[in-house]
Amino acid sequence: MKQAVKATVLVLFVSLLSGCSSAEAKACKLAVETQADYLKQSKTLMVKSSQQKIGNPFNARKLFDNGRYIFLKSQKVIVNNPSCFTAAQVVIAQSFVGSN
Fold first, then answer.
1. What is the pTM of this model?
2. 13 part of a folded domain
3. Does residue 56 sit within a domain?
4. Is 90 exposed, middle or buried (0-12, 13-18, 19+ CB in 10 A)?
C-alpha cells in the first residue's frame, strides 16, 4: 500500500514538473515572438522615417522616435526573459536598456 502511494506521489510530481517546463516553453515562445514582432514594427517605422526625411522632416522625426521606442521595448523583452535568449542577446539588450 505504501508503495502505491509513493508511486502515485512520484507520478504527480513528475507531471507537475513537466507542466512547469511546458509553461516555461510557452512563455519563452511568446517572448521570442513578441520580441520579433517589436523588431519588425521598429524596422518598418525606421524605413518610413528615412523615406520621409526630405519631404516632411517633422513626421520623419516622429516616426524615428516611435521606431526607437518600439526597438527599446523589444530589448526589454529580452532583458525581462533572459532564459529565453542567448547570453549575447541579453548583454546587448542590457546595453540598450541601460543607456536609456
1. 0.73
2. no
3. yes
4. middle
